[in-house]
Amino acid sequence: MTATTEAATRPAPGEGVPIVAVRDVHVTYRSRLGGLFSAQRVHAVNGVSFEVRRGETLGIVGESGCGKSTTARVLTGLEEPTSGQVFFRGEPVVRRTAADRKRFGRVVSVVFQDPATALNARMLVRDTLRDPLDVHRVGSPAQREARVRELVAMVGLPASALDALPSQLSGGQRQRVAIARALALEPEIVVADEPTSALDVSVRAQILNLLSDLKNELGLSMVFISHDIQTVRYVSDRILVMNAGRIVEEGSAEHIFEQADDPYTRTLMAAAPSLLHPSR
Ligand SMILES: Nc1ncnc2c1ncn2[C@@H]1O[C@H](COP(=O)(O)OP(=O)(O)OP(=O)(O)O)[C@@H](O)[C@H]1O
């Protein structure tokens, strides 16, 4: 099949079989407030179901504490749901053993909020990018070195950055390294959890554009999580609005902004007046 015919038969973003489906997931924690022996439970995620489809950016938005990060951790396998299930291409994801988790970790990767804490301060960028390739024994040593160079170029950093420690880079450059690391194993889905919140306002748009460009170039799906509905609107094809552990609204970015039904969604939008009503 030629590249053109393949592109013609490939489903458009958001169409086709979901890559990952989350079904009726609940996560409860022992409350942090009641002390070590507290019997109080926090229902962080309360019956959440959604799908991530090929080539789309799915935005998850809601106020702090609504369960966004917990949902992301379930999606990436960092957290097991208390009940409910995650499916990969229709098959239940089993993550009982380290090998299961390693296999699923190649499919879904994650970019965290703060690259200063997400990157190992004592590792050179070269070693940070090489680490997942070594762990998964990808190619020969020469191929791994070539991949590391390719990754650093993909995120717009010079080759000289390979010999830097995180502390020698700016916040934006560090987040580029974290993105490169997330792409190292050619994942199908990148989960970006508040990826610009810890950055200077001046570099936020650059990082958002980089993520969107890479998603399009590599044919990835992205789950973009933020408390900021303007940022979510900027990058997302489809948006889930979360409140108190539940999804209260779901739809295209246009639908959410033009015909939101849920009062909570309207409240979130009212807190973003400059984008909604630029003339005000
Ligand atoms: N490990 C934990 N132990 C106890 N409670 C937790 C734990 N992790 C999260 N929670 C609680 O679960 C709820 C949801 O937290 P979560 O971090 O998923 O929300 P969030 O929307 O991502 O918020 P933020 O943007 O502030 O991280 C909150 O009430 C939080 O305090």
Automatic annotation (TrEMBL):
Annotated GO biological processes are: transmembrane transport
The yes or no answer to whether the keyword Transport is present is: yes
- PROSITE patterns, alphabetized: ABC_TRANSPORTER_1 (PS00211), ABC_TRANSPORTER_2 (PS50893)
Signal peptide residue numbers: none
| Pfam families found in the cross-reference section | ABC_tran (PF00005)
User: Would you tell me the protein name for this molecule?
Assistant: Peptide/nickel transport system ATP-binding protein
Q: Which InterPro entries match?
A: AAA+_ATPase (IPR003593), ABC_transp_ATP-bind (IPR050319), ABC_transporter-like_ATP-bd (IPR003439), ABC_transporter-like_CS (IPR017871), P-loop_NTPase (IPR027417)
Keyword terms, alphabetized: ATP-binding, Nucleotide-binding, Transport
Q: What sequence ranges are listed for the domain ABC transporter?
A: 22-269
Q: Name one GO molecular function term.
A: ATP hydrolysis activity
UniProt keyword Transport, yes or no: yes
Q: Which PANTHER family match?
A: D,D-DIPEPTIDE TRANSPORT ATP-BINDING PROTEIN DDPF-RELATED, TRANSPORT ATP-BINDING PROTEIN
Which family does the record assign? Answer: Belongs to the ABC transporter superfamily.
